[in-house]
Write a structure and sequence with these properties.
Blueprint lengths: L2 H9 L14 E5 L32 E3 L4 E4 L2 E12 L5 E5 L1 E3 L8 E3 L3 E7 L6 E8 L6 E6 L6 E6 L4 E6 L9 E8 L4 E5 L2 E5 L9 E10 L14 E11 L1
Parallel strand pairs: 2-5
Antiparallel strand pairs: 1-17, 3-4, 4-5, 4-17, 6-16, 7-16, 8-13, 8-17, 9-10, 9-16, 10-11, 11-12, 13-14, 14-15
Length: about 250
Amino acid sequence: MKFSALIDMITGRDEFTPAPAPAGSPVWAEEFDGPIAWGTRWVGDRTSAFRHCDHNPDDDKLDWLDPGCVTVADGMATFTATPAGRTLENGRQAWRTGLLTTEYSDEEFRVRTGDFVETRVRLPSGTGAWPALWTWKDGANEVDTFEYHPDNPHLLELSNHVNTAATYFTDEGAIAPGRWVTLGTRYGARRVEWYVNGECVFCDDTGVGPDWSAYLILNLSLSAGEHHPAPRGPEPITFDVGHLRVYR
């Protein structure tokens, strides 16, 4: 049995779903079995992907980053978003929310060409939720393992912004609000592969090139309403993550 499958069965996180066999050996992992290692491993109050570092209204986001919005219990991280007492530059009310990035951390861990990343998440149900696992470095180098919006309840957005390629993956059996799903991406030089519950669901023909590297970002954004509905009320919106692992 694969290590990731064993962990999920032990912790009882939904029904067993196998992960794809990773190429190489585990080189980095976050199991969320202890307090967040702020500063050492993770940073949660800023990212260079946001124009204002801790918020970014340019990208149809209501986010205002707050490390206190990421908590850990029972081997799981929970991102919680709530209305903030702040107003964005566009006049909209900001939401306090959580983001984890390896950028600016002491480790400064980066994924690179050939790596395989895997995460297990519970998709949120709150209107306006916009969770994602993605990469970023020097204003670019973005590959999205997934983006999700509950108004498209059975759809994941899978994108390579380094050498443009993308698809909408739909599966009513695997993708739904409140459902646990295992997601993975292999960053190939000539093609990137995306996996859902152990199955390769999309391969591009562009890849990331031989010298690519980037920081990891795992976060819960809030849509501002331009492309997807904004939150409809003040109730908290949550997003759960079981693990994040990198194989090389």
